[in-house]
Amino acid sequence: MLSLHWPWLLLILPAPWLYRVLRKPAPSVSVPLWAPMYGELNREHSARGRGDVLIMLLLSVIWCATVLAAARPVWIGEPITLPTTGRDLLLAVDISGSMEIEDMDSGGGLVDRLRVVKDVVGEFVARRKGDRLGLILFGSNAYLQTPLTFDRATVNTMLQEALIGFAGKGTAIGDAIGLAVKRLQDRPESSRVLILLTDGANTAGAVTPLQAAELAATHRVKVYTVGIGADEILRRSLFGIQRINPSADLDEDTLTAIAEKTGGRYFRARNPEDLAAVYRTLDQIEPVEQEAETLRPTQALYYWPLAVAILASFALALKTRLRYTDG
User: Fold this and answer.
1) Is the pLDDT of residue 166 over 90?
2) For residue 45, what is the DSSP state?
3) How far apart are the C-alpha atoms of 156 and 119, rounded to whole Å?
4) Backbone CA torsion sign across 34, 39, 43, 45
């Protein structure tokens, strides 16, 4: 469908012709002594009449095309309906220094926690069709890497590019929740979800996790918490093989309290299989109706009449030059 951004500009189209009609005619001069010469000039003017008509036509084309271009014609395509169901779902991922601990058994050996998170959460993102997804990365500070969007590919790309320590070595769980609440509070109340993954306890930030949980509960943001890290790994030392708990710093009590206070649930992932199972469970979150959104693609067309005006201007310049050359 053809449309104009500023159709009211077309009201000025008759302006040159109105000026021509309403302007005062030049005073006539009586020249009886020069009547023969005046008749000769009149005949010359008649001979050039057709040239004058062409010039007036070109001027009219230039004016009309310029005004039409200024009115910004656009072609509006057929409406495209965006997904009308789903969640507004923020993913908060811990990238603090402890996420580089290699305690996740991938079958081929131990790998660091963030590597497993990228694999499992990346697959989760790819499956969440119809959801608006966003990504928060946090360490000593919390940063919104991707605002809520249907573009799952971009969310996944930003997750895969995350680096350990990029946000600092600490763990600001409370700040991550607070940032998520800020981004979700204007969305439909029944669709606000935060999935927060961490491997430690809150060691940084201006807001404590429980204060942030209170804020989330007030704004009806449901928080699912995921604690990641093995309970035990074996390390060789001078004294033989030692059993080490790499998740000793994981504050499960606080993560459980956050989930319970906001109507969510706490999950524990000790290995890649556990983590994959957690996100398969989260996949079962029922979608809810959201306001239907449609997009109508538009294509600007102003350059077509503008091109006509430019070509007509060149033609007018050429005609004028030839006229004076012939004269």
Assistant:
1) no
2) H
3) 10
4) positive
